[in-house]
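> call design_seq(struct)
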């Protein structure tokens, strides 16, 4: 019980191993399973994930991760990349903090194209007909139709600067014309991402997720600013893992020295 209180109160780093995977969305399951095994080996808890709240940023949000968390019964709050757009508190965020450059925000949107749902045709703003690339059904059973402009037409189009993010992509025989899609039918299949959205969007979820910044980011800020870990000085996963564990050890020793004097350990 003493170690449980210690870990809870001073937030020690317990997941010390770096994984050789590039994308965040592939890390949720191996990280949590490793954490569970570590607590079992330490004799602290047979299944630490049963009563632990898991939070992570939007980089970890995908359907496979949400399915794993839901089926494992893990109390997780991981927002999708649209969660702020559903929150009224951030309704004017785009006006205050615009992300897109003026050039990107002024590009033609799908609404600027003339789409005929009955005939399955699409006309671009310059009056050219786009080729249909067929129907696409996503995991939520939404059915969309995709169109792409003919390369020869897009290459010589006078409006391509307002139509394409990268007009130079039309150059060469392997280039691509403008692509646009329209949803024909909204799916009614509930996904595991929908389950997560409901959890994050309610008042309790917002309150819990709001604490993530104060829990996680100070650790990285301390390691980068105070311990000067701006980049690894070694190469190779094995060597980098050793260096990372040394920094984690310093972080934990510092926490124990400053905040680890709990009554149960005195």
């Amino acid at each position: 019980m003493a170690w449980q209180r210690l870990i809870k109160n001073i937030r020690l780093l317990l997941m010390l191993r770096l994984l050789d995977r590039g994308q965040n969305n592939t890390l949720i399951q191996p990280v949590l399973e490793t954490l569970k095994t570590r607590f079992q080996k330490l004799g602290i808890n047979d299944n630490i994930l049963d009563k632990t709240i898991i939070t992570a940023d939007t980089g970890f949000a995908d359907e496979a991760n949400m399915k794993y968390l839901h089926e494992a019964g893990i109390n997780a709050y991981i927002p999708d990349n649209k969660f702020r757009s559903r929150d009224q508190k951030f309704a004017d965020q785009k006006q205050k903090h615009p992300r897109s450059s003026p050039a990107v925000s002024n590009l033609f949107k799908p609404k600027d194209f003339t789409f005929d749902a009955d005939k399955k045709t699409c006309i671009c703003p310059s009056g050219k007909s786009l080729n249909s690339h067929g129907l696409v059904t996503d995991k939520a059973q939404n059915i969309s139709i995709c169109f792409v402009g003919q390369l020869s037409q897009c290459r010589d189009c006078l409006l391509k600067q307002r139509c394409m993010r990268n007009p130079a992509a039309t150059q060469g025989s392997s280039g691509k014309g403008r692509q646009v899609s329209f949803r024909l039918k909204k799916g009614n299949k509930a996904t595991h991402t929908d389950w997560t959205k409901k959890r994050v969007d309610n008042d309790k979820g917002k309150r819990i997720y709001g604490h993530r910044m104060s829990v996680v980011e100070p650790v990285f800020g301390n390691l980068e600013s105070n311990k000067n870990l701006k980049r690894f000085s070694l190469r190779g996963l094995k060597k980098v893992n050793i260096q990372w564990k040394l920094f984690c050890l310093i972080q934990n020793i510092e926490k124990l020295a400053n905040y680890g004097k709990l009554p149960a350990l005195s």
